[in-house]
Amino acid sequence: MEITPLLAKLPSAVRPRWPWGRRSAHTLLYVTRTQSFRLDANSQGEALGEIEAVEKLCEGADDLLEVVEHAFRARPPGRRLWLLYEGLETHSLALPAAQVHGVGAAALTQALCFEIEALTGASVVNRQLGYVLTTSPDEEMRSYWASLLPQRLFERLEKEVRGKGAKLAAVLHPGGIPLPLTQAVEPPWRRVEYWPEVVICLAVRRRGEPQEVLVIPTEGLTRAAERELAEWLADHPGSVFWGETLRADHKLTPNAEEPSLDLGSAEGLTRWLGAWAKVLAQRENYALPLVQATARVEKEIVYLVASGVAGLMIVALHAGWQTYLKRDYESQIQQLEAIQKQMDEYNQGIKARNERLAAADKTLALLEQSGSLAGVVEKLRRRPARLLAALALARSPQIVITELEIGAPTWAVGGVSVDFSAPNAYAGALEEALRPLGIKVNPPAKASLQENPGGENRGPWRFKIELGDLSLGGMRDGVVR
Question: What residue spans of 311-414 are helical by DSSP H?
Answer without folding.
Answer: 311-317, 321-327, 329-369, 373-393
